[in-house]
Amino acid sequence: MRPVEIKKDIHWVGAVDYNTRDFHGYALSPNGTTYNAFLIKDEKVTLFDTVKHGHEEEFFENVALAAGGLEAVDYLVVNHLEPDHAGCLVETVERVKPEKIFCSPMGLKAMDSLYHMKDKGWNIEALPTGANLSLGRHTLQFLETRMLHWPDNMMTYIPEAKLLISSDAFGQNLASSERFVDEVDRAKLTELMREYFANIVLPFSPIVQKTFEQIQKLGWEIDMIAPDHGLMFRGKDVAFAIQQYAELAAQHPTRRATILFDTMWHSTETMARAIGDGLKDAGCEVTLMHLKANHHTSVMTEVSRSGAVIVGSPTHNNGILPYVAGALQYMKGLKPQNKVGGVFGSFGWSGESVKIIKEWLTSMNIDVVGEGVRTKNVPDAEMLAQCFDYGRQIAQAIEAKMEACGVK
């Protein structure tokens, strides 16, 4: 991709990665991603971020085309030090030889352990929230967004262009020849935003809400958001992006349930279907996800939109099946909020799985309904009726949770 002028004298100079299928531990197939970098042509030509290692030649070509040569770059702003944003930072400094490098205070602390720059003679300045940097016709203003999603993250705002370079916030993973969200299918874009949020940003939801408050306090007027991954938002889509993030960060419970399970000889699967029937009968939308067939990326995306997460496993070696354990570990790290839970499983002789899963969900502050349901070997008609009733009980718990959270 060649550079794209997104505002007068401001260019996208990133790289498109159609082939990557793993990103921060979650699956991207078939969408790929982009590593967005930006350049302002002014009295001080300024480059924002770099790209992942392996895409540097596309990046350097774009920078040279937009700036009129790599040697034309005066300043380098590093909004985030993670390798998908700064993977060719060292080579960029060597080739561009910027007059000065700017980063957040936390970025300055992390710079040496990541890139060992103390012996390289880099001229670096840390810019805290509220700092201003004049480039000539453009001014840069900075907002630290610590733990959104690394300690060093910051955003850069250009008031003359009403442009927010938002780092990891508002991102999506999509490799595309388009650069703006109004050029692609809206439903697909919305789902990609949810997937990105659910698998990266979810544990930092309170920081998202705090960031919105800080932006309002700073008085920033924004008519374009340029994230470091995916497509950019312009015009009316800025309000769309903010609304989507506000809703995702609020994690309001919904009349939806996700049932996660693994099974050995289909007994636990049969129970899952009966619980789902009970939920559906009580007015809930239900998604059943066999964990052997669904990557934890899709699992977490579904959990994020649900008011209940119900987990089942047969007892295996006095524990739970590995795919269930893996899904629970991944989920716990992402800290979903405002959920009710359910547990179920089958066993042959010892029967610990239901208790173990309940302990997992309880440790995530998920309100588990009752003690769950379990059956020895194959569930009979009476057990399936209990499962159906358990689904209805979970549906009632969802309604109570929604009421408690003020959701209609």
Automatic annotation (TrEMBL):
It comes from the Bacteria. CDD domains: flavodiiron_proteins_MBL-fold. It holds the Pfam family ODP. InterPro entries: Flavodoxin/NO_synth (IPR008254), Flavoprotein-like_sf (IPR029039), Metallo-B-lactamas (IPR001279), ODP_dom (IPR045761), RibonucZ/Hydroxyglut_hydro (IPR036866), Rubredoxin-O_OxRdtase (IPR016440). GO terms for molecular function: electron transfer activity; FMN binding; metal ion binding; oxidoreductase activity. Coiled coil: none annotated. Residues 257-395 form the Flavodoxin-like domain. In the N-terminal section; belongs to the zinc metallo-hydrolase group 3 family. This is Flavodoxin/nitric oxide synthase. It comes from Desulfocurvibacter africanus subsp. africanus str. Walvis Bay.
